[in-house]
């Protein structure tokens, strides 16, 4: 499971919240994008590096 670049207490706190109806917008994609994709309804990530974007997009968990 990817770990976002947040403090461990912040990540633990967020994991205890019901965020499934929330939408997240972030600048820069990475482990936080992968982590949020399992926690919220929708994530939008602004990324200027197309190769990096494609790498992250290929790892996203997308519900069916």
Structure report:
- It is a single chain.
- With 64 residues, the protein is of the alpha+beta class.
- 36% of the residues lie in helices and 16% in strands.
- It is built from three helices and two strands.
- The chain has helices at residues 8-15, 31-37, 50-57, and strands spanning 23-27, 42-46.
- The protein has a two-stranded parallel ribbon with strand order 1-2.
- The model has no long low-confidence stretch (mean pLDDT 91).
List its salient traits:
64 residues; alpha+beta; two-stranded parallel ribbon; 3 helices; 2 strands; 36% helix
End-to-end distance, in Å? 19 Å
Strand share of the residues? 15-25%
Total number of helical segments? 3
Strand order of the largest sheet: 1-2
Query: Helical percent range?
Result: 25-40%
Which class do the helix and strand fractions yield? Answer: alpha+beta
Rg calculated over all Cα atoms:
12 Å
Largest sheet: 2 strands, parallel
How many runs of DSSP E, i.e. beta strands? 2
Low-confidence runs: none
- What's the overall average pLDDT, rounded? 91
Shape: globular
How do the helices and strands follow one another from N- to C-terminus?
A: HEHEH
